């Protein structure tokens, strides 16, 4: 067993402060990740228009993709059982004219140990899903729904606003929105998120402890 010393405790504390994929949900936000995407790749990474159905919902995890018509919610039911434990089901719909997700789907997803469902489209049964505590993000809510068909795809690449989104990409969702990071770029973005958080912490410390103006701190 390793000897516990003041130095080892300090080292452990430094390790805990580093932002990793494992603690990203607790230590950073979609805003931080979007800023990192902007700094490195000059894109926001934001999937426009998607918000949580409850502002308290926050999620970080790897996605499994699905794509279908808004009249077909059956594909999403099949997709639940294609997901691995702790994956996020990310769905692109043809439009948001009909809801493709509701209470029954959320109950099944909880039972199958999904982390969340994020829909580029519409959901419904909002209050019931909130009561379940299952995390759902969508562009809007609708009362009407389509049919339990199975005409879509699961696990294939999808395109939103010229971005290719793949199963295995990393999703960060909270009250401000949803950001997706390509699986190939996760390490690079996490490194930049750490830089951003350190910079912000320094700025806040100067604001509070040194009584400086923010414009002076930022050099504006």
Automatic annotation (TrEMBL):
EC number(s) reported in the record: 4.1.1.3, 4.1.3.-, 4.1.3.16, 4.1.3.17
Pfam families named in the record: RraA-like (PF03737)
Gene3D superfamilies membership: Ribonuclease E inhibitor RraA/RraA-like (3.50.30.40)
Taxonomy, superkingdom: Archaea
Annotated SUPFAM superfamilies: RraA-like
GO molecular function: (R,S)-4-hydroxy-2-oxoglutarate aldolase activity; 4-hydroxy-4-methyl-2-oxoglutarate aldolase activity
UniProt keyword terms in alphabetical order: Lyase
First and last residue of the signal peptide: none
InterPro entries membership: RraA/RraA-like, RraA/RraA-like_sf
The name this protein goes by in its record: 4-hydroxy-4-methyl-2-oxoglutarate aldolase
Organism: Methanosphaera cuniculi
Native organism taxonomy: Archaea, Methanobacteriati, Methanobacteriota, Methanomada group, Methanobacteria
């Amino acid at each position: 067993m390793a000897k516990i010393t003041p130095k080892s405790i300090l080292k452990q504390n430094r390790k805990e402060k580093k932002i990793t994929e494992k603690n990203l949900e607790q230590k950073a936000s979609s805003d931080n990740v979007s800023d990192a995407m902007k700094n490195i790749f000059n894109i926001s990474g934001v999937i426009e228009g998607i918000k949580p159905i409850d502002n308290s919902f926050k999620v970080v995890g790897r996605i499994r993709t699905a794509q279908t018509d808004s009249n077909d919610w059956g594909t999403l039911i099949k997709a639940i059982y294609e997901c691995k434990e702790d994956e996020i089901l990310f769905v692109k719909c043809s439009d948001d004219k009909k809801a493709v997700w509701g209470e029954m789907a959320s109950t099944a997803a909880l039972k199958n140990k999904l982390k969340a469902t994020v829909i580029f489209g519409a959901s419904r049964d909002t209050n019931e899903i909130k009561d379940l505590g299952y995390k759902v993000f969508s562009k809007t809510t609708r009362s009407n729904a389509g049919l339990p068909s199975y005409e879509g795809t699961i696990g294939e690449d999808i395109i939103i606003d010229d971005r290719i989104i793949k199963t295995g990409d990393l999703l960060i969702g909270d009250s401000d929105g949803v950001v997706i990071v390509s699986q190939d770029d996760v390490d690079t973005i996490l490194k930049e998120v750490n830089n951003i958080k350190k910079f912000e912490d320094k700025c806040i410390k100067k604001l509070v402890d040194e009584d400086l103006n923010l414009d002076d701190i930022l050099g504006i």
